[in-house]
Design goal:
CATH topology: Jelly Rolls
Helix content: under 10%
Number of helices: 0
CATH architecture: Sandwich
Number of strands: 12
Shape: globular
Radius of gyration: 14 Å
CATH class: Mainly Beta
Largest sheet: 8 strands, antiparallel
Distance between the termini: 4 Å
Structural class: mainly beta
Length: 169
């Protein structure tokens, strides 16, 4: 495990020291989530981005898990490269670019704008797969790119909702 953030903490519990820090002066607040456990809450202002120093280096693949509650129709929860990518665009489709050097167009074809969900992204040298609530949204041919950043809720994609857990392997 390379990164483990949960319970509203910015401190990495994986013992790798990959702590999250605010970009700028604002940070998400800590609230009790729908599960009753602490979570980080973003207010949709687009001023609460978090960053983690890039930690995937020479990795040839990664798996990311994120438990979140969304309450808006346009968001990106994790960005690893300088891309105009979305986990959900206003059309409802995703334009995922996490662990890639370019974004997918309209993949997955449907992402939630509300409710609590578990999402996982599995990327390696040959394939890329997104699972939502443990259901595959399809697999794509792709190459893995570790990226030059690890940003949580990029300011240019204002998110309104909570993140309870982020794991990265």
């Amino acid at each position: 495990m390379k990164l483990w953030l949960e319970d509203g903490s910015l401190t990495d519990k994986s013992s790798n020291g990959n702590n999250a820090t605010p970009v700028g002066s604002n940070s998400p607040t800590v609230v009790n989530s729908t599960s009753g456990k602490p979570a980080l809450k973003w207010d949709g202002s687009g001023t609460q981005e978090l960053q983690v120093s890039p930690f995937l280096g020479s990795a040839t693949g990664a798996t990311l898990y994120c438990v979140f509650t969304a309450s808006n129709g346009n968001y990106n929860l994790v960005r690893t490269a300088n891309l105009d990518d979305y986990w959900r665009f206003v059309s409802g489709a995703g334009y995922f670019g996490t662990f890639r050097n370019g974004r997918f167009e309209g993949y997955p074809n449907s992402m939630p704008s509300s409710g609590s969900h578990l999402i996982s992204i599995h990327a390696d040298t040959n394939s890329y797969e997104v699972l939502l609530d443990n259901v595959s949204l399809g697999s794509q041919s792709s190459t893995f790119t570790p990226g030059d950043r690890f940003r949580i809720v990029s300011n240019d994609k204002a998110f309104s909702g909570d993140i309870g857990i982020i794991f990265d392997f």
